[in-house]
Amino acid sequence: MSKRYDRGALATNDSRFKLMAMLKAKIVFTNLFLVLTIFSVSGRADAPQYGGSIIVAVSADPGGLNPAITTQGGVHLVCGSIFSGLVAHDFDLNPVPDVAESWEVSPDGRTYTFHLARDIEFHDGVALTSEDVRFTFEEMLLKYHSRTRSSIGDNLRRILTPDAHTVVFEFERPYAAFLQLLDVTNAPVMPKHLYEGSDPLTNPHNTNPVGSGPFKFQEWVKGDHLTLARNENYFKQGKPYLDRIVYKVMPSAAMAAIAFEKGEVDYFLNPSPLDVGRLKNMAGVVITDKGREGFATVETLIPNLTHAPLSDLRVRRAMAHAIDKDFFVDKLMFGMGVPATGPVSHMLGWAYNPNVEKYQTDIALANRLLDEAGYGRGADGVRFRLKFVHASTFAKVAEAVRDQLGQVGIAVDLQMMEFSAAVDEVYIKKDFDLAFAFYENGPDPDIGVKRTLVSSNIGPIPFSNGAGYRNPRVDELFALAASEQDRQKRAEYYFEAQAIVVRDLPYFWLYEPKTAAAYRDGLKGMYEWSAKSNIYFAQDAWRADGGRSNHAGSSTRRGLYLLLALVGLVSLVAVVILIRARRRRV
């Protein structure tokens, strides 16, 4: 039987075939267009990109990696990316959510209730709960953390945990500064399951930390570098963007500056004023002085008041008149700072008393006061000697202090040490006459200043009342200020306290530095919201330049390959359908 051909039917089938082909082609090109459009949008320069790493220059290894037992800046610089606090603070020092997604304060200021975000896990997969918060405060912060201990240690009545996601702090007296205290530097949430029943000062996780922050601890090669890796299960959805952060130890600022200029370092904290002036002219470099609002540092010389002759106020007054604060600002800081007038930074304008007693540089008066105090010059011109303990970072400051005091017959023997060793010598062993510290004010004097002045904070606690100063009225004024909810009245208490301590001179407040940071302009999200951006930068930072990744742009390339494979698959299916349709027609 012969096969019959119907020309009309054939024409109709041919038309249908052509229509089908056109539709299939349209599908292919539509899919291709949509895929490329999506890829194009996801790859925009202003949209955060995943992948890459940052190399950060640091001057020394941190003393450890437990931020609940110290206020050392180097520890918190790294641990701010490993751990989380109840809240963080914006540029105006307002609290913003971190572990706590919301909170309430009772009308009398004595009860704070925090509601924790759900599904937060430590890096080992164990859930973070209100019990971790309670444990951290009771077993670590209130025992070992200088700022938190001095701020609430004599006021906090109890901590309640009514459920896994609610924690309640009850105070004996109102405490107005509590929300300013609770960031990751002053109240990191530590894992109870890893510290309970152990000594928090010697727990092995102090060098192998497990937090809940945006990055996980990966490795620590002492004296060389410390590496953090991305926490894939970070509770802030979609963050972080970087694969890793490498903190590279560079003992000298000059070494760090050279490495930054050569492109070996991406992020350079606290460059010297000379470096800032030079780096400002480099293409592709961002210089900022933002992100320091939560620190308000006052560089301070600590006299040991338990040692003669520094226990004599006349001697301390003489030393104050021998010290030239303008020299530090003009010659060492190259104008990037202001002379300090007391323990409270001028950046805390509402609490800063500008009318305290001033000690103008007056060598003749300094010599006269020392003579009156009975400390005459010996045959060698020396009145007495002082042991000045300092970290290598502060060598220039120490040399300037030595030279200035030498003009009035005070011989200063410089004892330069590694940072952690210097901290131990000063605050634990108390084996010093003079020492140097950069005391951070924090967002409220109760947090950063109080710890250096109240008698209850004298003891073997790093960055505490290292001078050993005691004044009952100052203790009382800080207690009154802590309980006062009216900020103007609180300021009045702080003003009086400043007037007293500046007359007593338990410290020599030298200058307030205007610090800066330098980073590559290919880094985005660095200084966008936080009053402590150098600690919080990692959760928001991303690379627009695709640099410094072991698989630079790898996530983008993987996405592109997947999309192209999808387009290819759709096209292949369409071709197969067309071939089969043609065969049926034939």
Structure at a glance:
The protein is of the alpha+beta class. The chain has helices spanning 7-42, 73-79, 130-144, 146-152, 178-181, 192-195, 253-261, 273-279, 313-322, 325-332, 363-372, 395-406, 419-428, 445-448, 450-453, 472-483, 487-504, 533-536, 554-585; strands spanning 53-58, 87-89, 95-97, 100-105, 111-116, 156-163, 166-171, 215-221, 225-230, 244-249, 267-269, 285-288, 297-303, 337-339, 384-391, 410-417, 434-440, 508-513, 517-520, 523-524, 542-543.
Please describe the structure with a list of short key phrases separated by commas or semicolons.
Dipeptide-binding Protein, domain 1; 586 residues; 36% helix; D-Maltodextrin-Binding Protein, domain 2; 21 strands; seven-stranded mixed sheet; 19 helices; 4 domains; alpha+beta
Total beta strands: 21
CATH class of the largest domain: Alpha Beta
Overall helicity = 25-40%
Q: Judging by the overall fold, what is the CATH architecture of the largest domain?
A: Roll
- Based on CA inertia axes, which overall geometry fits? globular
- Rg of Cα set: 31 Å
Largest sheet: number of strands, sense, barrel closure: 7 strands, mixed
CATH homology-level superfamily of the largest domain: Dipeptide-binding Protein, Domain 3
Structural class, by secondary structure, is alpha+beta
Quote the average pLDDT. 88
pLDDT under 50 segments (min length 5)?
A: 1-21, 27-43, 550-565, 575-579
**N-to-C CA distance:** 18 Å
Q: State the CATH topology of the largest domain.
A: Dipeptide-binding Protein, domain 3
Count of discrete domains: 4
**What portion of residues belong to β-strands?**
15-25%
Number of alpha- plus pi-helical segments: 19
Strand order of the largest sheet: 8-9-10-1-11-19-12
